[in-house]
Amino acid sequence: MKSTKYSRFCRKLFEKTFERFDIGETNKNNMLAKADIAMVYLEYYSMVLMNIIIGFVASFVSALILYLIIPNEITTLLILIISSIVPISIGVYYLTLPISKAKSRGKKIDRYLPYATNFINTMSVAGISPAEIFEALSIVELYGEIQKEAQKITVEINLMGIDTITALKNAIAISPSDKFKEFIQGILSTIQSGSELSPYFERCVEKYMESDLVER
Fold first, then answer.
1. Residue 138: CB atoms within 10 Å
2. DSSP label at 138?
3. Could you please report the per-residue DSSP string of 143-170?
């Protein structure tokens, strides 16, 4: 899910309203990143609020028209039921969407991690740096959601000028997979200790391949 003219319009409309509430945006933004929703907190939840309002108005007007055509106790009750259920359903859907998408992405990352680590290990043996490894991984479509995680790391390093260590730390903060976080943390620890990465990658390949075999 990406930012659109509609979502940006919603943000402009409700930005001041949201700013009145002292809400920690970092965790909210991280959750959206984990779900691969390319919007900041204010934009996404402004869009959610607008969708709820539109849902309420549309459902209320529809039920009211039905009541005007067939005025009775049942259609009167329908006005209350429909105008309540529709906006509540919209709110529940969009509020739970980041969590459900993040969980789904986490499972997909875990599924491809054994094969991605094998790819990373092969490149590491050839003497390629971690930054170059993730750049290469970012253009390989075989590894699904891991490719997207690598793209985020590559963008921070190449376009934003962030150093590799910081980019990897940021990747840990926004990854929906505990296994991938553990893998990246291991890379950080190995780099910071001055050790060789190849032995670490070899251990990861054996570990994740064995785990994948057991799960299958």
1. 19
2. T
3. GTHHHHHHHHHHHHHHTS---HHHHHHH
Instruction: Say if residues 156 and 169 touch (Cβ distance below 8 Å).
Output: no
Q: Rounded to 5 degrees, what angle do the CA atoms 216, 114, 213 make?
A: 25
Per-residue pLDDT tens digits for 147-170 = 999 999 999 999 999 999 999 999
Tokens read off for 71? 């005025």
Contacts of 62 (CB under 8 A, 6+ apart): 82
Of the two residues 85 and 141, the one the predictor is more confident about is: 85
Distance of alpha carbon 40 from alpha carbon 47, whole angstroms: 11
AA letter at 142:
L
End-to-end Cα spacing for the chain = 31
Token representation of residue 116? 């991605």
pLDDT band of 16, cuts 50, 70, 90: confident
Three-state SS across 175-199?
CCCHHHHHHHHHHHHHHHHCCCHHH
Rounded Cα gap, residues 32 and 102, in angstroms: 8
